Amino acid sequence: MPSFQTFKDLSVTFKKHPVTDDLVTVKDKAAIVQSITALLLTMKGERPFQPNLGSGIQKVLFEPLDYGSAGVIKSEITNVLARYEPRVSVEGIRCLPDELNNGYEVELQFSIIGRDDAPVAVEFFLERTR
Prior knowledge:
Layout: E1 8-10, E2 25-27, H1 28-41, H2 57-60, H3 67-84, E3 88-98, E4 103-112, E5 120-127
Antiparallel strand pairs: 1-2, 3-4, 4-5
């Protein structure tokens, strides 16, 4: 019988469970995707007592929209996940500039370490905000 790790985290919505009145939790893939999203959207220096936690993606979004900036974003994602998310092994990252929508289409594929699941693919769109 194969053994595998399970992961559990609090939901970022902080809603109460309707029956138990505990905070709602997310599990396994959803917990890891939530963690990755938080890491990528957190700017370095934003968290007290953890000045190096986060990425420099927000700064790159204000650079020219081209393949050079897309390469920097790809590198930032790789570095942040290697440093702060030990539960995953990155299989591939695709980052393409989208001039019509003024942002970057990102597809991230990763495997969960300690699990025999198929690789997880997450797609998201990065755009600058004020």
